[in-house]
Specification:
This protein is mainly α and 69 residues long. It is built from 3 helices and 2 strands. The two termini are 23 Å apart.
Length: 69
């Protein structure tokens, strides 16, 4: 089965993604969101390490969902 990836030009971020409880990972809420997380390696080790430090600094997760990844 083919699933389209998230398109920030015509889709809304919070309809397809949510931050994990600890704010380190992006979780897909829809098939499109899950496919995008995997295809773009949104939760790769470097991204997770950076977000973990942002959480410690109080900069993350954002108060509002981003317009795009």
């Amino acid at each position: 089965m083919t699933v389209p990836l998230f398109n920030p030009r015509n889709q809304v971020w919070h309809e397809h993604f949510v931050w994990s409880e600890n704010g380190v990972e992006v979780l897909g809420k829809s098939a499109c969101g899950r496919a995008t997380v995997v295809a773009l390696r949104v939760n790769n080790p470097l991204a997770k390490a950076v977000r973990r430090n942002w959480v410690k600094a109080g900069w993350h997760p954002p108060d509002e969902a981003p317009e795009s990844l």
